[in-house]
Amino acid sequence: MQPFNYVRPTSLTEAIDLLAEHGPAARVLAGGTDLVIRLRDGTLSPSIVVDVKRIPELAPGIGSGDGGLIVIGATTTMTEIAAHPVIRRDLAALAEAAAVVGSVQIRNRATLAGNLCNASPAADTAPALLVHGATVVAAGPGGMRRVPLDEFFVRSGVTTLQPGELVTAIEIPARQARLASAHQRRTRRRGHDLASVTLACGVDGSDTARVAFGSVGPRPLLRLDPTGILADPGSSEADRAGVLDALFADATPSPRSMRAGPEYRLAMLRVLGRRALATAHERLGTGATA
Amino acid sequence: MTARIPISLTVNGQPRSLEVGAHHTLLEVLRDDLALTGTKECCLVGECGACTVIMDGRSVDSCLVLAVEADGAAVLTVEGLASPDGRLAPIQQAFLDKGAVQCGFCIPGQLLSAHALLEAHSHPTREEIEEGLAGNLCRCACYEQIFEAVESVANGGEPEATREPRAGAVDGIGGARAGARTSAEGLDQ
């Protein structure tokens, strides 16, 4: 690995100043499960690595904010998210997605903010958070701002974070009606693998169903179905399939990916969409959790 | 630029203070600076689990942890599993008894993942065992015997062979061979 300087700021201001000062020569280190790989293989060669794990404002934790928000600290790990009773009860798709990221060892280090900032099209937590209407809280030289997650992703590895900004937390809004959600994915092998398709679905008793999916294009996508067909627990498979096909119209899986061919991904997108929708309906009906 | 950074951590119960390069991983420091070569280097991308250690109670791939990140942490490596008198931990003995060890390269990582799993769930289901060890690959494909070893500790407490103190590694190797034969016979049937 190429040498670099390592700093471990203990305040948000210090971290922002460091990122502003060093610009693109600085990289943020949270869980390291993506960054350290790329430091070693040379695809990244920052002159300074800023470890954000000892900044109190980014501390791991899952709590409540104003108006019943669920607030997840930037450095909260997948293990903590997957096991947390509130996440499992109210954000079932997120609990399921966090539980399948990498392996136990990866989940013990990988952070939620890292999964989003890495902006992999295959990030498993992204569809779940899109379905739940999550917002990214970013802090930078210009102060704090909130970015709806759907406006955060640009393409693989690129987000709308500005120079000097870093994510401090992820907020999930309280909803008047409970949103029942489910996550589904396909991988090449059972166990530890990246998703060939990753998808989440949510229904809340209204006419609008929410579907988000990734690993089938440059960024995860959120689509709403206002027709009421997906939201209707009694709609036919044929009607659902027609609506899902329309929602998946912008899926453009790469023909060059090693993990799966485009035809397979598009076919599985439909299968996972049907399954996740059925599970979400089941959960809405019974009030059951993940 | 490449100044060495002082860190203090506890490794297998012993406080250690040393200076590390910022770009050195915990894996490199354990093996090269602390001479704890039980932890293995293999894929270096967090897929194989050969470098698994326990850091502050959680299993991690030490190839993906910078040594400076372990400053202040308590680290357990395979060298710390057995008692100071050399008596193997129940999970180690179970691996030998079940013939879960062939070439042995992945075993330190497998043991630590199994250890972490059993600390979290004293009676894991088969599914939980498979998921708990999904981050540890075995090219000898001893998975069945490894799962059996974890199950035997989970279900029976101490496996038979640990009820009396053993002489140590020599007996252990014999146990592994006997186990390997048993499993090979199983394949013939």
Description:
The complex is a heterodimer of chains A (290) and B (189). Chain A has 290 residues and is an alpha+beta fold. Helices cover 31% and strands 23% of the residues of chain A. Chain A contains 10 helices and 14 strands. With 189 residues, chain B is α+β, with helices and mostly antiparallel strands. Chain B folds into 2 domains: 4-80, Roll (Ubiquitin-like (UB roll)), CATH 3.10.20.30; 90-188, DNA polymerase, domain 1, CATH 1.10.150.120. Helix content of chain B is 38%, strand content 14%. Chain B has 6 helices and 5 strands, in the order ββαβββααααα. Chain B has a 5-stranded mixed β-sheet with strand order 2-1-5-3-4, sandwiched between helices.
Q: How do the strands line up in the largest sheet of chain B?
A: 2-1-5-3-4
Name of the CATH homologous superfamily of the domain at 180-285 in chain A: CO dehydrogenase flavoprotein, C-terminal domain
By DSSP, the count of extended strands of chain B is 5
CATH topology of the largest domain in chain B: DNA polymerase, domain 1
Give the helix proportion of chain B (percent range). 25-40%
Major pleated sheet of chain A: 5 strands, antiparallel
Question: How do the strands of the widest beta sheet of chain A line up side by side?
Answer: 4-5-10-6-7
CATH superfamily of the largest domain in chain B, please?
Answer: [2Fe-2S]-binding domain
Kindly report the average pLDDT value of chain B: 86
- Strand share of the residues of chain A? 15-25%
What is the CATH T-level topology of the domain at 180-285 in chain A?
Enolase-like, domain 1
Helix tally of chain A equals: 10
Overall CATH architecture of the domain at 180-285 in chain A: 2-Layer Sandwich
Largest sheet of chain B: 5 strands, mixed
Note the overall shape of chain B.
Answer: globular
Name given to the CATH architecture of the largest domain in chain B:
Orthogonal Bundle
The CATH first-level class of the domain at 180-285 in chain A comes to Alpha Beta
